[in-house]
Amino acid sequence: MSTGEQRGWPLYEVFVRGKRGLNHVHVGSLHAADDRMALTHARDLYTRRNEGVSIWVVRSEHITASTRDEKDPFFDPSADKVYRHPTFYDIPDDVPHI
Amino acid sequence: MTAGQAKPAEPAVADGLQERFDATIARDQRIEPRDWMPEGYRATLIRQIAQHAHSEIIGMQPEGEWITRAPSLRRKAILFAKVQDEAGHGLYLYSAAETLGADRADLTERLIEGRQKYSSIFNYPTLSFADVGVIGWFVDGAAICNQVPLCRSSYGPYARAMVRICKEESFHQRQGYELLMTMMRGTDAQREMVQDAVNRWWWPSLMMFGPPDDNSPNSARSMAWKIKRHSNDELRRRFVDMTVPQAEKLGVTLPDPELRWNEERGHHDFGTPDWDELTRVIQGDGPCNARRVERRRTAHEEGAWVREAALAHAAKQAARTARGAAA
Ligand SMILES: [Fe+2]
Ligand SMILES: [Fe+2]
């Protein structure tokens, strides 16, 4: 991503599963020479106190992201479909369990 | 954008972006890495986060010097874990700085070339093992006062790094205070060591919060951007109020004849730190500045072959894997 990376170890993004039943969550980044080292560094840096049961690392340059602009039409398809939400539908109060 | 506008596109876009940025700050929402932000905001954050990261890294040295001389295996293991945490804090923060486009190798170079600063407090020497306890109590305590409000800093990655750091600081402060309680239950000589360490670290700890508000030119802007949430003097006052009762319980005297409870204000009155001393230490003329930076430079240079060898090994492994796949 940045030009300085050629000077050293590449940048990795780190994702940790806090405990069973939870998704992996992005916790930060680190530099490592290769994937294996990225995993052991991630363990030492982000899980010193049992913060995780599973770690993913991925080279930052391999992540594809949506554009940064909030006004981007990218998210428009979800903005105008109110009928996707349960509150869109009027149901009488006396209908149970719905 | 409205079609057919006569104005050139560039400033029109910039106008809208600035408004959106201001609105995000006003709503107390977080700015995230890929958002548009004013260059001043970005530069201020990079400077502050880098200085903070450098402080954690340099901060390993004063206490690290006592790891091999810790009086018991228990104290050695605790000190080791604490110093390792400080390394971690530095790395969380460098990681946050990189989301703003800073380059980590460049930040390290700036530190060892003296072009970027770190906290003045780490330029004082650790003369006895009691210093390890007093650093945990005062320096990590002051860090907690500084850092808890930063968990709500307007820049997302910085605030999240702070949450992580604050969780760990509590252990740092408590192990220091417990160490001092143990020494205070010991011999007269041990109690004297504790009082001596308190006398030497008290004023430098108050200086950690930076110059007084009327002499802190960038503070107002950082507060408007919600990078910073409280002024230097406000945080210093909190630290004093928090520490005085802890000192009483411990049985040590804080070396300030002007220190007393002010019933009317509901806070302690206290003396004025020697601001000339702070200026000297910040400008490089503290007792240990040269030694701290030199140590960091040596570690960096002596580690160069390891970084290169790891890269060469990674390249060799990758080539081997590629050949295996082709065969
Ligand atoms: Fe720290
Ligand atoms: Fe700490």
UniProtKB/TrEMBL annotation, chain A:
The superkingdom listed in its UniProt entry is Bacteria
**Pfam families recorded:** PaaB
Q: Which NCBIfam families would you find in this protein's record? A: PA_CoA_Oxy2
Protein name listed in UniProt: Phenylacetate-CoA oxygenase subunit PaaB
UniProtKB/TrEMBL annotation, chain B:
The organism that produces this protein has a lineage beginning with: Bacteria, Bacillati, Actinomycetota, Actinomycetes, Kitasatosporales
Is Oxidoreductase given among the entry's keywords?
Answer: yes
| Pfam families in alphabetical order | PaaA_PaaC
Q: Which organism is it from?
A: Streptomyces griseoviridis
What is the protein's given name?
A: Ring-1,2-phenylacetyl-CoA epoxidase subunit PaaA
The lineage's top-level taxon is Bacteria
GO function term, MF aspect, one: phenylacetyl-CoA 1,2-epoxidase activity
InterPro entries attached here?
Answer: Aromatic_CoA_ox/epox, Ferritin-like, Ferritin-like_SF, PaaA, PaaA_PaaC
Q: What keywords are assigned to this protein?
A: Oxidoreductase
Query: Has the keyword Oxidoreductase been applied to this entry?
Result: yes
Write the Enzyme Commission number(s) for this entry. 1.14.13.149
EC top class, as a word: oxidoreductase
